[in-house]
């Protein structure tokens, strides 16, 4: 499996290098399934456009970036045609709700286990973890969809707190980890986790904390 899990996308030269390494192909030939389901507000959509422009800046062709929507069940048929699944940030509860409602949890796992690249931004990075409870930590996403089951994909065996320490202080994440007895990486806006098979590497500015409270 290949994952690049970020807080804000391709915002550091070393994160961009990790993206290139994980693709291992001519970027002008790479196709991207670009998912903006989590983004509903004008502010969130602004960051979606930023992420799209960052991809184009790496050499990905605009014509090879196709919009996918986890709220649209029909897109499960086309998802596997792409080389990369790029899941943008926004509201984590809304994103997971649409994924489960339309059976994308099964399809995303299939995609990742085909050794294709999954890139997550913020909420998109939380989805491959065991659960999304970190989204309840202040400043939390509003659970305006009334989601009760917070279990996520479980592709990896730890949780991720994006935007730490910018939005969520490391101390706050440490308190959450202590209470829940879970492994968690808290990563800054310019830090990412590069995962290839069983190998995990911290890339970017390497501003992070790892909590493993037993």
From TrEMBL:
GO terms for molecular function: serine-type peptidase activity. Coiled coil: none annotated. It holds the Pfam family Peptidase_S51. InterPro entries: Class_I_gatase-like (IPR029062), Peptidase_S51 (IPR005320). Keywords: Hydrolase, Protease, Serine protease. The keyword Ribonucleoprotein does not apply. SUPFAM superfamilies: Class I glutamine amidotransferase-like. GO terms for biological process: proteolysis. PANTHER family: ALPHA-ASPARTYL DIPEPTIDASE, PROTEASE S51 ALPHA-ASPARTYL DIPEPTIDASE. Belongs to the peptidase S51 family. This is Peptidase S51.
């Amino acid at each position: 499996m290949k994952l690049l899990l970020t807080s804000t996308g391709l915002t550091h030269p070393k994160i961009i290098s990790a993206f290139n390494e994980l693709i291992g192909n001519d970027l002008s030939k790479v196709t991207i399934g670009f998912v903006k389901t989590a983004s509903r507000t004008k502010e969130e959509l602004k960051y979606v456009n930023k992420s799209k422009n960052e991809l184009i800046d790496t050499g990905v062709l605009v014509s090879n970036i196709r919009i996918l929507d986890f709220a649209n069940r029909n897109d499960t048929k086309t998802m596997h045609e792409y080389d990369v699944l790029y899941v943008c940030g926004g509201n984590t509860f809304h994103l997971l709700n649409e994924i489960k409602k339309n059976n994308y949890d099964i399809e995303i796992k299939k995609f990742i286990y085909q050794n294709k690249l999954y890139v997550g931004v913020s909420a998109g990075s939380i989805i491959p973890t065991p659960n999304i409870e970190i989204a309840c930590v202040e400043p939390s996403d509003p659970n305006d969809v009334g989601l009760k089951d917070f279990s996520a994909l479980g592709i990896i065996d730890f949780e991720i707190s994006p935007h730490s320490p910018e939005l969520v202080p490391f101390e706050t994440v440490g308190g959450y980890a202590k209470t829940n007895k879970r492994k968690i990486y808290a990563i800054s806006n310019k830090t990412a986790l590069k995962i290839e098979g069983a190998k995990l590497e911290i890339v970017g500015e390497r501003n992070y904390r790892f909590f493993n409270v037993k």
